[in-house]
Amino acid sequence: MNLRVLGCSGSIALDCRTTSFLLNDRVLIDAGTGVGDLALDELAQIDHILISHSHLDHVLGIPLLADSVMQRRLAREDYKPIQVHALPATIDALRRHIFNNVIWPDFTRLPTPERPIIELVTLEVGQRLSLCNLPIEVLPASHTVPACGFGVATTSGWWIYTGDTGPNPALWQTLRGRRIAQLVIETAFSDDERALAEISRHLSPSMLAAELAQLDADTSVAITHVKPGEMAAVTGQIAALGIGLTITALTRGDRFRF
């Protein structure tokens, strides 16, 4: 599996893009502002978008992408809509608050109801599916809205993305006994803002340490979703904790092969 990190920031600033990962050029996990760095031809190749939850920093690329690629995809002999896969509550939020003909046109019915550019597909935690020959599992998350993470089975082991989450014992139970190639886990705030992390169901470095202590195997860990301006504090606090795993911070533009 080829993975491109299009965005991995908790918000926007110069050189910061919100969460988006591109798998094998055709499957997008979350659709943050990083999607906008793709060329039009690259955007038009995306057949599936997996969404972890409904918050704006993870979904705002969907309506803009649909608008950008509609004519190119409709002109293809093998036309098919872009499938957006998400939990039922997230699908409902997209219908009510994005594709509502107020914030954005309803691309689930445009250009025609018979040939829309977007198809919304519901997921359940625990579900396994195959998209573009990628075996994917929907993983539990614990956030302020219904949320999930995703795991992708690769020849190197599982690539795990937690999505936005606070303490999440169900995830570690699910992952027990698996070989993990890389764990991408959010660490949105420094410990100076731990109270805010707890209220908003995110993680800080000390909370991250408690989560990683529940892993039953050594693995490569990459933190993501750090708020702009917090990176030095977050990485410094993680180093000071001596967690005992190889922990790096994702950077926009990173590429991995698993």
Automatic annotation (TrEMBL):
What biological-process GO terms show up in the record?
A: cAMP catabolic process; negative regulation of glucose mediated signaling pathway
Please give the SMART domains that the UniProt record associates with this protein.
Lactamase_B (SM00849)
Q: Which GO terms describe its molecular function?
A: 3',5'-cyclic-AMP phosphodiesterase activity; 3',5'-cyclic-GMP phosphodiesterase activity
InterPro entries, per database record: Metallo-B-lactamas, Pdiesterase2, RibonucZ/Hydroxyglut_hydro
**Where in this chain does the record put each Metallo-beta-lactamase domain?**
17-207
Q: Name one Pfam family in it.
A: Lactamase_B_2
Q: Provide the protein name.
A: Beta-lactamase domain protein
Upper lineage is:
Bacteria, Pseudomonadati, Pseudomonadota, Betaproteobacteria, Burkholderiales
